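Feature request, filed as a ticket because there's no other form

It would be nice if the structure record came with a short human-readable summary line next to the tokens. Right now we just get the raw output. Example of a typical job, pasted below so the devs can see what we mean:
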Amino acid sequence: MQLIKPVVIFATLVACTVLQAQVYKSTDADGNVTYSDQPDKSAKPVDLGSTNSIPAVKTPKPDTNQTDASAKAEATVTYRSVRIVKPANDSSIPHGPGDFTVRVSSTPELAKNYALQLYMDGKAYGDTNTSGSFALTNIDRGTHKLKVNIVNAAGKSVKSSKAIKVHVFRPSVLQPAY
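Raw output as currently delivered:
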């Protein structure tokens, strides 16, 4: 990493000297004008004048008081509710592979640095997310309890939904589908 800085500085200096190279203008016997960085017998140096340049724009430093205030505001979000919108409580998941989606709603909407964690039968299911939608796949047949928690950046639960029950029906060798 320390070697990169000197290499970049050297390359910049070399590039600047190339950019400042002299330009020559020459005219051949037929009147054709040629510009080159290599002088020939009839070449004359061309005065290019100064190059256009614009001073760098000064970037204002971020207001740390405003940043701290917005971080504190986000840290103190109070959720009035979180609930499972879909599936409905005591609903049945029809015969199939045991796949369904759980949709979640919170009031107020999920803030930055907060996430949702789905629990099935008392155990965390999958990773946290911020979308409000969980895709469950290959869920075993039977009755399952679902619950969702809003968790902060440290993983601490700040609000929980009421648990709902879903009944998953799946074909089996002992009880084939109708």
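Something like this underneath would help us a lot:
The two ends are 67 Å apart (CA to CA).
The domain at 74-168 is CATH 2.60.40.10 (Immunoglobulin-like).
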